[in-house]
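Protocol step 4 of 5: obtain the predicted structure for the target chain.
Materials: sequence only (see below). No template structures provided, no constraints applied. The aim of this step is simply to have a reference model before the mutagenesis design in step 5. Sequence pasted as it appears in the construct record:
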Amino acid sequence: MLRSIIGKPGILGEWAIRLLLVSVSCMVAVAFAEVMVRVFFPISDGLENVTLEGKPIKGFFDPGSVYRQVANEYDALTTITDKGHRVPGVEGNPDVIFIGDSFTYGFGLNDEETFALIYCKQQRRECVNLGIPGSGTLRQVEKLEAFIEKWHWKPKEVKLFFFGMSGSFSAGNDFVDNYDRYIREHSSQSDVEQRVQDGTPRGGAPRGLAERLINLQGVILEHSTLMRLAKYHWGPILKSLFVVDPGNERMAVALAATKEGFTRLDELSRRIGFGYSIYLLVPVQDIIRGTYGETLAALNGIAPKPVIATAQLFLGSPKDYYYAFDGHLNAKGSRRIAEFLILKDQ
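Step 4 output (structure tokens):
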């Protein structure tokens, strides 16, 4: 039909027609696959917090609440203490306080599966989990300080869990959150306005095309069940393939911001009188790519004391310890961390 419309093509025209036919065929095949996946393998995107009866809730830390974290890979019972943090909790003074982001909080894990609760139960220690999903280091330390002051705690030890990858801002939120906060607090209004005009609202060096394309994955996953299915089955491999270096300038800012958080923790420990440890948790792609050592070295360059690595716990088969779609540690991975912490105590 195309030939009858445009007449006899030349060599270039012949190739153009073939390319058009192949493109149309691919689009039809993808569209058909998308429809089939939506019918037979409906996979949602992201996490939803709901009541025990399944009604959506907005918060993470309503004091005294019990709710479920629901996603493709889990349905996790979550208990918040009367003080407003996830269990474990204490009535009196805690021996150990855990701080960090969603990995410490326990995304996708039932209460008894979080490494904080496993560790404290087996070690018979009074513990508190102050993990905050989507937080940076300084915010985590600020929450620690606020709870210490409010409840007059005198902990013996604080364990900070940093989650990040120095080779990518699209993997691990701690570097990004620290970077964003640093830019907000150290930039003038004119700087912010200029960066918005330049298409770099987070400040620092402009994001390249590759990073912008990777950041579009949220939009793609929101609208394509086919892509969600692919991530559900091959998440770790896909994550390891699509990694973009943030650049020296932005990484330097992220490290400066992270150093502020570490310094604040060090100063607080001296003032209150507790010991502390900093542990590095890395995304699965940092392990698969073999670059986790670079992240550790970057943190050790700014930390007041040596950072404790954990990537070695997952080298045998990293994909077995992380949720493929969600990216957080699964119950098996969380238990590995708890066992490591227990071993460190011996």
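Step 4 remarks: Strands lie at 48-50, 66-71, 74-79, 96-100, 127-129, 157-163, 275-281, 308-309. The CA atoms of residues 240 and 285 lie 4 Å apart.
Proceed to step 5.
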